[in-house]
From TrEMBL:
Residues 154-251 form the HTH araC/xylS-type domain. This is Helix-turn-helix transcriptional regulator. Pfam families: AraC_binding (PF02311), HTH_18 (PF12833). Keywords: DNA-binding, Transcription, Transcription regulation. SMART domains: HTH_ARAC. Transmembrane segments: none annotated. PANTHER family: HTH-TYPE TRANSCRIPTIONAL REGULATOR NIMR.
Amino acid sequence: MRETRHLGSAARGRIVLAHGQRLPTHAHDRGHLVYPATGVLSVTTAGGTWIAPPTRVAWTPAAFEHHHTAHGDADMRILFLSGALAARLPAHPAVLTVSRLAREALLALTAEEAETGGRAPEAVDRLRAVVVDELTAAPEQPLHLPEPADDRLRALTGILYADPANQQTLAELGARVGASERTLSRLFGQELSMSFHQWRTQLRVHHALARLAAGKSVTDTALACGWANATSFIEAFAALVGETPGRYRNRQLHTEGG
């Protein structure tokens, strides 16, 4: 991944990133929301990776070290929150559903003209409050890929990161990393609070979001990410992302095409 150091523009509310571009690891003294008006953004901390398509917003509390990566050309909007507003959101990084109202408020607050747009400070505060009101009504979304600590789990997840289409069972992967299926199943629950199947599905959806944002077809993406057919891929994708992969891909291409 290419890395960029243009963090100064974050204070102005907008950074445009090319596909594969990555911001360096950093932390802020205020919690902030990141919304991809186009493309897909991932937020990675020591605890794992959260991924946000344009139907979602990523929340990172103050002091969490993290970095962002763009999948597809991403129009990244950043909104810093006061301590009082931040306290209403989770104390950990999260991905939340962005309503139409929250989306329009985020875009208005982070538009280039917002710096000199003439809104009174109290009007800006009200818009920020609207965003938080909408997000507090939205449940956390299962778009977090947690990072394991156990060496055996790290070896296993490394295999799947490198090849998300890998079809080996947990027992077969266990033979490669030196652990039984029972032990690995227990570790997934204890360390990652999800099953092996749930984790692998999350990983594949993460890869699928990036491929679709880059313009790959739904069928090619399904096969590249390990699904046996497009139907099962569409069902898994829609359950996590909130829309079908075809609709998501078409919207990305339409947006990037102007």
